[in-house]
Amino acid sequence: MPVRKLKEFLDSQKVKYVSLSHSPAYTAQEIAAAAHIPGKELAKTVMVKIDGTMAMAVLPASSRVDVGRLRDAAGARSVELASEQEFKGMFPECEAGAMPPFGNLYGMNVFAAPSLAEDAEIAFNAGSHTELIRLAYKDFERLVKPKIVQLAAK
User: pTM value?
Assistant: First the structure.
């Protein structure tokens, strides 16, 4: 089960969460529709390379990453979107493109859009294209310790 590592971590931290199953969906907007969640409340994980190092950019499903804004906010020389080929081996228990925004479990930095904190809860892919996890945003922030930066395109 792809989500085992994440659920074990959440359970060990005594975090309350809900697991939501939905029909197979692959884009963030399709997932939001399948799970009946507004696109702004579903967080998507976009893999980026910041000065050559893999990192996660987490933002609402209805937004897209502005690499210039992320570069400036991160104080980096370069930021580029990573290709699936570049990161697919980093998440062996996850389906391609369905990794949860818990970079701390994979040894990488996480950059999150401040708009995600506007809702009490956050929902995100749980390692597969048929399951989401929903939990309190404050728990996500406490566990992941993302750098909150303006990274979404205007």
Answer: 0.92
Looking at the DSSP assignment, which residues form a beta bridge with residue 16?
A: none
Residue 137 burial (C-beta neighbours within 10 Å; 0-12, 13-18, 19+): middle
> Both tokens of residue 17?
């969460």
* Residue 8 CA: distances (Å) to CA of 2, 3, 4, 26, 131: 11, 9, 6, 25, 16
Per CATH, the number for 4-138 is 3.90.960.10
152 beta partners: 65
What does the alpha-carbon distance between residue 146 and residue 154 come to, in Å, rounded to a whole number? 21
Whether the CA torsion 111, 91, 15, 30 is positive or negative: it is positive
Contact (CB, 8 A) for 144 and 105: no
37 vs 80, more confident = 80
The domain spans of the chain are 4-138
| pLDDT digits 0-9 by tens, 114-151 | 999 998 999 999 999 999 999 999 999 999 999 999 99
